[in-house]
Predict the structure.
Amino acid sequence: MRRAAAAGLALLLAAGGQASAQEGMPLASPEELGSPAEVTAPDATLPSPVANDKIDQRIERGMEAAGEEGGPPPDYAYGAFQRGYFLSAFALALEQAKKGNAASATLVGELLARGLGVKQDLGEAAGWYQIAADEGDREALYALGRMYLEGVGVKQDLAKAADLFTKAGGAGHAVALRELAYMLLQGQGRPRNPMLAAAYLRNAARLGDSDAEFALAGLYAEGVGVVKNESEAARWFAEAARAGHSNAQVEYGIMLFNGRGVAKDEAVAARWFREAASAGNPAAQIRLARLLADGRGVAADPAEA
């Protein structure tokens, strides 16, 4: 079981420094933050859309109809972004961002950060994310937190990254909660605090983040930040497995095969190994091959093994 637990913890440590609400426990309250550094609006100018980069007229008609029926205001910029019309998306989002629309400022930052429709400019992207983050936009808070975590477009500042993830997580951003948990497990930007990390992972897991479910299972399996509980480990591995997380499918299969934290069932274990194997998981492929060779949980099939 320690092998399964180690897998969950390895994910935490690996993902902690790299790169959504439903019913459940209330989110942990974010800590009060100091005033963010003042950022001047980047001096971006509207590009001239090219002839073959127009917003689909069907999208426009549908969005206008939605507005007439009392729905939310149409978001042409995001509609263009979803269709891959990045130049038009940038022009439309920039126009609204300059009027103080936080979501549009976030989209401008995203397009600049990824170089979609415009030349990539990470520093300018950070500026737009900051503007939106100051308005409480959780996507901007998360994106800017990633930039400070990795030192991309801004000078690396782990404490500021943790602050931004805390605010985004408090607004219900599951991935920000998970990232903050990773930082707390490693003592990055904040003092190491496995118990608080487990609480943040639990919140993220209850928001449906499968990586958080997998990581939380690892904590329960190992007894890190929580009381060791194989039943809870199995429960969260199962949740992540059902969401298509192939590593969780392997770990849950192992628990089923050995009857740890859940009733022993070699046939169901084999099905999970097969599902993970079909997704290209090498550990699952090896385990499935052994079961096929030995006829455990499946009919023996040396040829397939």
Remarks:
- Residues 1-23+208-305 form a domain with the Serine Threonine Protein Phosphatase 5, Tetratricopeptide repeat fold (CATH 1.25.40.10).
